[in-house]
Every structure is written in C-alpha cells, then in structure tokens.
Specification:
heterodimer; A: Rossmann fold; Rossmann fold; 3 domains; 6-stranded mixed beta sheet; 44% helix; disordered C terminus; B: alpha/beta; 4-stranded parallel beta sheet; 18 helices; disordered N terminus
Chain lengths: 467, 467
C-alpha cells in the first residue's frame, strides 16, 4: 500500500528549502489513531523528576503507570537509589469507587517509614484525577506528620502532552527550591538544568565546571538531591541543557529569584566548548576564563585525533534523527556534520514553532522535518532518504532494524555517556559501529534476496564503494 | 488491603502491605494488545489517553525487539469530561486509512472505564455511520481490575465470542465443510509464550495431520524476518476465518489458566467443543498429555521424530539429574508458566519452594493445590518483587526462574536467575527461547543445569574444568 500522510497531520511534516523558514505545525495533541511516539503528561513529569535519587516517587493510580516507569532511565546515583524502585498505590476497583485517598495516605506512611526519603513526590495519574482524590490535601497532612516535603505532581495523562508534564515537574521543583540555606554559595556558581545523569553525564559536566572554578550548586535533576535542589536559588546563573523540559523552570527562577539563564548543549565538541566558554564569559572572571581555555584546549587536543580517524570511516553516511526536544536535535546535527555525516531527516516529539525555525536553519536543504511523527511516516522517510543511521529512542529502534537500517540510541535508557568531550568520542564510536557494521551489506535493502548465493554481486558492496 | 487468605498451611498470603513496590505485573491493556497482535491483519487500539499505548509499545518492543504499532484514541481533557466517542471514531477512521486492517482489537484503559464509556454502543454506531462490517472486537481491560495476564485472556475470549460462532452464517468460507470433513480440526489456546513456543506447538499439531486454530499466534507478527520495506501490517497471525472455524473443532487444548474468570475454552465448551485444560506442555508428563490428546484427536500414532525427541529428553534427565536434585527454586511470572515450571521442577527432583505471580485471577493457588503436598512452601498471588525478594531469602532459594524483572532481587540475594517468560528486557533473543514440548523441555533442562553449574564454578575457589 502506498504511504499516505494523514490529513490531520499535514503541516507537521515539511522539507527544508534554502533561505526559507516554513512554519511547522506543532505543540498540539497527538492525532487519534496515529501511532504517536509520544507518551503523556504523566510521562513528562516522571522523566524529569525521576533522577532525584533521595526522594520517594509514589505513583498514585492503577499499576500500569508505575510498572512502565520502573527503572526507565539510565540516570545514575552516586549513593542512595530510591529512584530505581517503583512504588504504586496500585488502585483497585473498590478504590476507584470509594476513592483512593485512604490508600494513598497509608502507602505514604508505610513507604516513608521504610525508606526514610528526604522528600516524596506523589504523581496523580488519570484515575486519581477522574475520581477526584484530593492529592494535595493528603500530601499536606503527611508533610506535617513526617516533616519532609511531600509534593503533589498533578500529571493526569489526559491533561495535555508530555510538555504539560514538564510544567507539572517545574511546579514540583519550584516547591522544593528555596527551602535550603544559601549563605555558603559563592559568587561564581551555577545550577545545571536539564541534565539527568544518564550514564553518568552530569558527573562529566560537573567535573568541567570544577576545573573551571565554577561552583555547581545543584544539578536538576541528574544525581539529584533534595537538599541541593533546596539551595538552587543561591546560584548566580542557570545553565539549561535540556531546553525542552527545563526552560519553564529557568524562566520561573528568573522571575522569582532574579537568576538569569543561558541555553547550552554538551553534545559534540563544538557545542561543549561553546557552552563552557559562554558560562565562563558570563562571570567575566579572568581566572575562570583562562582555566576554561586550558580545559577546552587540552580536551579538544586529546579527543580530536580519534574523531578525525572515525570521520574517515563514516564520511558521507546519511543520518536521521528523532528526539524528544529540539535543542538536542540542533546539537546532533552539528556533531554529525563534524563527522562528515549528513542529516536528511530531523524531528522532535515536543518542539515549538521557534525551535523548528532554528532546526530548519541548521539543516541542509531538502531535509525532512517532522513533529510528533509515527512509525509509518518514519519508515517511509527512512527508506526514501536511504538512511544509514537512525538516531532516536528505544521505540524507534525496531522500526529501523526491521528495515535493515542502523540505529543509535540517544535516549534515556542508554548506558553510554554521550555528553562532553569524552561523550563526543563515544558518540562517534557509536555512529561508526552502527554505520560501518558489515551486517548491513547482507540486508535485503542492500542485497536483493535472489542474489544471496552470489556474494560477488552484492549491491551493498557497490553502494558502500560509491559512497 | 487484604490479599487473599491462608488457603492451606503451606500457602502464605502475599504479605504485601498497602503499596506495591516493584510490580510483578503490568496492566491489562498490554495483554489485550499482545493477543490482538496475534491475529492476522489486526490493529490494536487502546481507548484512552496517549501514554498507555506508547508505554505498552515500549514495553513489548523491548522484549520482542520487533516493531509493534498500537493506536490510541488520544483522549484530551475534553474527552475525559465529555466522553471519547468522537476520538474513538476518528482513531478508527485514521487506522483504516493508513493500515487497512482486517480487524481492530480494542482494549479499554482505566480512564475510559472510569468515565463509563459504552464501547458496544460506540462500535455499533461506528458500523452504522460508516456503513462498514469491519470486525471491531473489544475487551474490557481496566488495570484497576486486571493485570496483563487477565487482559490477554479477556481479548482471546472477546475474539472467540465475537467470531467463532459465525461460521454457520452466510459469511462462512466455502471450503469449510471440506476442511471439517477431510481433517479433524483442533483449537489450541496458549497463554503468553514465546514465538518459538508458538511455532513448535504448531509443528507438533501439524505433525499429526490435524488442522489447527492457534489463538493467538504472534509467532510471525512479533518475530518477522528482516524486510526491505515496512510492513504496514506484519504478515502472519491467526486468520479471522480460522477463528470462525473454532466452533467446528473436534476439541480444544486449553493451555491457559483463567482462574475464576470464564476462559475462551469454556465458551467453546458450551458450544459443544470438549475443552481439555492441560496447562503448558513443559516437562515429559505434561508434554505426554498434550501428545496423547493429539493422538486421540487425529487417530494417528505419534510420529517417530517426536518419540525420538522424547527419548533424548529422558536421556538428558539421566545425564543431569544429580545437579538439580533437591535444589530450592523460586519461580515467578504468569500463572501458566509458574505452574508448568513447578511441575517440571518436581519431575526432575528440584523443589519449587516459592511460586509467585502478580496476576490477580487466583489461578495459581488453585492449580498448584493438585501438586505434591508440601513441595511448594509459599504461594504468592497478586504480589510484588519486594515480597518475592524477601520470601526467596527467607526460604533459602538457590535459583530464581522468571522474567528479567527479578534480576535485582536475584542479585541482592546472591543467587542465579534463569530468564524465562515475559518480559526479558536485558537480553536478546527472548522470542527465540523454546520451552514447550520435549524439545523445549530439553532446552530448559540444559539451561537449569548449566546455570547451576556456572554458579558453582563462579563461586568456587578452584577453577574446575570438569563438572
């Protein structure tokens, strides 16, 4: 059957044209019956708060929502690992009929007594909202009884998109920020927003700032600690990495505490260097600037030889990327370009109008841009663009593999750090392992089945030589 | 919350307090999706908010490592208040435009159930307004009532109820009488098992010259060969025409344990088809029961190659019995698999001291009651991994067998885990694990022996090279 774009989705897909920025329809609810790659409001709040390792995360609802988010991110902890257990009030039929507040209260008491968390987040799912449980009231009672912050996260799945979940997480974080003592926070200090310590990335970035002489007050939320987050209002600058999820928090902190913010990215050596310099320049401190120059010079010199040698092997390969937020997409386009890899398709789950303008300007002509896409569209465009490497999350992986197309996981389940200078090398190695693996030569896309017995005639070999 | 009562001295309650920590089940719609994915040309649709479909896809995809499209009616806040009838119809319209399905399998989410959506009425209205006869089969699957096991059974039951009796009507295929006359037909109703298991069940039945309806059958839809184009609908699955013929079969071999619920086999039984609820054919005796029924239905002796496989399995038992004798094993997962494994372990001289499931249908305790008294020291139903981990420790369990979700429990108890069942998220090849029949039992037996040997070797100070 010929591929046909759903009428309801027209405007959410376009092809770039030189010198033109076309408006991409975005930031709207997924189309019914279109197999969106997005999750829900609950998901948005859950992924942002998930890496806070010393808090209890209790999902108030039937079992599914907690089961699917058990240990879902590769967000590491340097100590306690409360975030890696899955707690649910596991609502049943009688709770739905008579209300779940009693069970919520009993669950909170039991779990706080057992795990001694520094705070508790209570996620209200679809059902908690529909049956009208007063989650904030229960949280207030428990907060008084146990003298720890107990924060309701109103994240009913039907309330909006994943982006609305980011806003719910922002409200939850704001209620923690400001509780701590900031007397000891120095003048050259930052918060790192939107790094989730996937595979230890926050630790990599934190180390750079330490070497630059910049104090990291808190990371939101990678290897997150309730007490550190409570002192976040003492920092002098917010450095926002995952712009999609954390810009609302940065804006709120600017308004409430007067802390300015900059948007950065630590994917690729260009963006990493640029981001570190921008932080150094903000403080206009010569010692910091000099330390940053030394750091960047040293690190770039260290990693460049390997990046160059990998570039020789992947030059001319074609990549597609579909990621959560737009800022990551910009960085990936640049990082891939530095490796000599062309991006032919780029999309996001939650990009906004101005994000898509910028995405069009960083991409080459005739790149396909998609918002909130689905497997049928992806498969169609991957084949049309003859993609070698598809960069996305686990939901996209089997779509690529089934077509015999290489795939690189750049989402939160991965176990390899891709941020910073070492991350840039790891990313290049991933691209190399994906795009140059000999297995693709054997796939039907490259080698028609009737030729399978005569290896000499393999189209794959010719194709690779041509490139 | 009360979690069952002491049924006999060896049967403990779940011991689970108010909250569920690290669930041993996922939600009912997942089971419904999996069952629907085993029908040819069927598209699963979940009526509710977007997140449910996406979470379920991610969970299933990570096990099978295969694409699986699950549509959602993508409730908005308005649909949660006013009902989702429009979204339901739009979802089906969009699915039909992009997928041209032969059947749509609808599962309900908690949200749709709680607001009281009348799916029967919506389906009838859809058929009328669009003037179509497209089969739209719906199962009620709120996860505040059921887990994935019950959801799976509910969808199979719904398919049989909706389609099986219809073969007598004018829509019956022309060759129906011919088929019924020429070869005896049997129905096989599997629980959630691997594509490799489904394929072997089919191989066994066909070896007796029997016609077969295997429902569901995702052996090909969730284990497809690589392709140079994206199959909008993966090939394979139980044909709708085969489901229609179920009510004309000679017998049903029911491998499921629906517990207190009505099973598809029960419904067919009331249509006059004898139902043999024999459980999963794992182990010599269980496979003997299965094979004997095939002999009976076909009037043919067991083919030589099957007898030879049986002989080889017995030979393997003789070679390896000492390594497993008296071993204290903790088994968890879906009731059908747990019961089959308990029988198998008793057959080889090991002790299934703890048998646990997250299912709520009370199938496990009922089925285990017929096993050797005293062999099973703890039966946990509707339980979670926090409880399983604690009970394994208390019961000195030496080996755990079950899904990958028990990994951290096994690790913290310092014992090996043999991965079996659903889901397996930390290894490749979950779909290729064969456990049924004599052949599958041999794979399982070797795996049990070898994992114990490896553990012994790893723990020993001496690097033994013969064991």
């Amino acid at each position: 059957m010929a591929f046909e774009l759903l009428k309801d989705r027209e405007g959410q897909v376009l092809r770039t044209k030189a010198g033109q920025h076309l408006p991409v329809v975005c930031d709207k609810a997924s189309v019914a019956g279109s197999v969106s790659q997005r999750a829900c409001t609950f998901c948005g709040s859950r992924v942002v708060l998930y890496p806070i390792v010393d808090a209890l995360h209790l999902v108030h609802g039937p079992i599914g929502c907690a089961a699917y988010t058990w240990d879902i991110r590769g967000a590491l902890s340097s100590g306690v690992e409360l975030h890696r257990i899955s707690c649910s009030t596991d609502l049943r039929e009688k709770d739905v009929v008579f209300g779940g507040e009693i069970k919520l209260e009993a669950s909170l008491k039991e779990l706080i007594a057992k795990y001694q968390p520094k705070a508790a987040f209570v996620y209200a799912t679809c059902i908690a909202g529909i049956i009208g449980d007063d989650v904030p009231a229960v949280c207030r009672r428990i907060e008084i009884e146990f003298a720890i912050p107990v924060i309701p996260v109103m994240a009913e799945g039907f309330r909006g998109t994943k982006r609305d979940g980011y806003n719910a997480a922002t409200r939850a974080l704001l209620s923690l920020i400001g509780r701590g003592d900031i007397d000891s926070v120095g003048p050259v200090s930052i918060n790192l927003l939107g790094d989730f310590n996937v595979a230890g990335e926050s630790w990599i970035i934190r180390k750079y700032f330490e070497q630059m002489g910049v104090e990291v007050v808190s990371v939101l939320t990678g290897d997150g600690r309730v007490d550190e987050i409570g002192r976040a209002h003492g920092a002098k600058l917010n450095v926002v990495q995952c712009a999609g999820s954390m810009t609302p928090l940065a804006e709120a902190m600017q308004e409430r505490y007067g802390i300015p913010y900059i948007r950065v990215s630590f994917f690729g050596i260009e963006d990493t260097s640029d981001s570190l310099y921008r932080v150094a320049k903000f403080f206009a401190n010569l010692v910091v600037i000099e330390a940053t120059q030394q750091l960047v010079k040293r690190e770039v010199a260290r990693v460049l030889p390997e990046l160059r040698s990998i570039k020789q092997t992947v030059l001319g390969k074609r990549a597609a990327l579909y990621v959560g937020g737009a800022f990551k997409a910009f960085s990936l386009v640049r990082a891939l370009r530095q490796l000599g890899v062309t991006v032919v398709l780029a999309g996001t789950q939650t990009g906004k109008t101005d994000d898509y303008e910028e995405l069009q300007s960083v991409c080459d002509e005739d790149t396909i841009i998609v918002d909130d896409t689905n497997p049928l569209e992806l498969a169609n465009y991957l084949l049309e663009k003859d993609v070698d490497v598809f960069i996305g999350g686990v939901k996209e992986r089997p779509v690529a593999y089934k077509l015999g197309i290489g795939f690189c996981d750049h989402n939160h389940e991965r176990k390899i750090p891709l941020a910073g200078f070492d991350g840039a090398v790891a990313f290049a190695r991933e691209i190399q392992a994906t795009a140059t693996s000999p297995v693709w030569r054997l796939m039907p896309r490259r080698c028609a089945s009737h030729e399978k017995t005569t290896g000499l005639q393999m189209k794959g070999g010719e194709h690779d030589l041509r490139k | 919350m009360t979690c069952g009562s002491e049924e006999q001295s060896t049967v403990a309650t779940t011991g689970k307090p108010h909250a569920t920590v690290n669930p041993c089940t996922v939600c009912a719609p997942l089971g419904a999706v999996l069952a629907a994915a085993g029908v040819e040309g069927a598209m699963p649709l979940l009526h509710g908010a977007q997140g449910c479909a996406t979470y379920i896809r991610r969970y299933v995809i990570s096990h099978f490592r295969e694409p699986l499209d699950v549509a959602s009616s993508s409730f908005t806040e308005a649909s949660a208040v006013l009902g989702g009838e429009n979204e339901f119809a739009r979802a089906i319209d969009n699915i039909r435009r992009q997928y041209t399905p032969e059947l749509i399998g609808v599962g309900t989410t908690c949200l749709a159930e709680t607001i009281g959506e009348d799916l029967q009425l919506m389906i009838a209205k859809y058929h009328e307004s669009r003037a179509t006869h497209l089969p739209i089969v719906y199962a009620s699957t709120p996860s505040y009532r059921d887990g994935h096991v019950e959801g799976f059974h509910a969808m199979v039951l719904a398919l049989v109820r909706a389609l099986s009796g219809k073969f007598n009507e004018s829509s019956a295929p022309a060759d129906n009488r011919l088929l019924a006359g020429a070869t005896a037909r049997i129905n096989v109703l599997p629980p959630i098992i691997s594509p490799a298991d489904l394929r072997h069940l089919r191989e066994l039945v066909v070896a007796f010259g029997l016609a077969l309806t295997l429902l569901p059958d995702y052996a090909d839809t969730l284990d497809a060969p690589i392709s140079d184009r994206y199959e909008v609908m993966p090939k394979g699955g139980t044909k709708v025409s085969e489901i229609r013929m179920m009510a004309s079969a000679a017998a049903t071999l029911d491998l499921t344990l629906p517990g207190s619920a009505t099973g598809a086999g029960d419904v067919l039984h009331s249509d006059g088809i004898p139902n043999h609820r024999i459980g999963l054919p794992i182990g010599v005796e269980a496979t003997d029961s299965f094979v004997n029924l095939l002999e009976e239905a076909s009037g043919q002796a067991t083919p030589e190659w099957i007898e030879a496989e049986r002989g080889r399995l017995l030979d393997a038992y003789a070679d390896g019995h000492k390594y497993v004798f008296g071993k204290r094993v903790g088994v968890y997962g879906d009731p059908e698999l747990v019961v089959a494994l308990a029988r198998f372990l008793l057959e080889i001289g090991a002790r299934p001291v703890m048998c646990a499931t997250g299912a709520r249908n009370r199938a496990l305790s009922g089925a285990l009651a017929s096993l050797a008294p005293g062999a099973v020291e703890a039966v946990l139903e509707d339980t979670d991994f926090l409880t399983i981990e604690r009970r394994c420790k208390e019961l000195d369990v030496e080996l755990m067998i079950g899904s990958s979700k028990g990994y951290r429990s096994a690790r913290s108890n310092g014992i090996p885990l043999l991965r079996l069942g659903f889901p397996i998220h930390d290894r490749v090849g979950a779909g290729r694990i064969l456990s049924v029949g004599y052949r599958g039992t041999m794979v399982l037996f070797d795996s049990v022996v070898n994992i114990l040997l490896q553990h012994k070797q790893d723990e020993s100070e001496i690097a033994f090279s013969y064991l």
